[in-house]
Amino acid sequence: MPAASQVGIVRYNGPFPMPAVITTRDIPASGELKVPASAIITPSAVELARERGVVISEVAPGSLTTVAPPEKTVALGADHGGFRLKETLKPVFEEFGLTLLDVGVHEESPADYPDIAHKVAQLVASGESARGVVIDGAGIGSAIAANKVTGIRAALCYDKASARNSREHNDSNVLTLGGRLLTASQAEEVLRVWLATPFAGGRHSVRVNKISEIEQRYSRTWKPPNSSDL
After folding, report:
1. Which of 136, 174, 177, 206 could form a disulfide with 154 if both were Cys (CB 3.0 to 4.6 A apart)?
2. Which residue in 106, 118, 169, 204 is the catalytic one?
3. Domains (ranges, CATH) in the chain?
4. What phi-psi label fits residue 201: left (phi over 0), alpha (psi between -120 and 50 degrees) or beta?
5. How many whole angstroms separate alpha carbon 207 and alpha carbon 144?
6. Percentage of the chain exceeding pLDDT 90
């Protein structure tokens, strides 16, 4: 294991068990990476961790858990198009006293936004985190992907008004942002409003419940089409 100074803690908190093989894609930008004692770490991953000053710590199976309660936890993810904005916005979550479950990416290497959106959505749908934020180039694809997961109400927001409306009226639990369409300051404004705005309830609850009813109806009956039908 590389010996490096600890500059913060970054845990693997994806919705799936830690992969048996740790590669360079699993190494965060800084801090500490906790892995199962049985994990195999590639030489290139060890070297990258050394370069970034990341401490790789072996822990007993089952001990990679979140300490913060779900309501104080936000699942966060970005593809390569949103990586820089994701890192820029992290201090905002800290100001709100929130713990992050960062599912990646941890560098600007190409990644598929549906995979990232799916991981964030699963953490929210499972109850491990109350809300999630996904950032890709435009934010559109991640919203579409996240909304395929039962229980997710993902909203692409582009200004303070849309952020406030998505929370007050729609009780959105996943925010998607366009890393290439918003400046850092614009994205921060959107995020702050989204995090601070509660669901208004009342008549809006009736409408959100209707959305859930539609979702449940089709999640029970939908079947993938046969190739011959396409």
Report:
1. 174
2. 169
3. 1-65 (no CATH), 70-204 (3.40.1400.10)
4. left
5. 20
6. 59
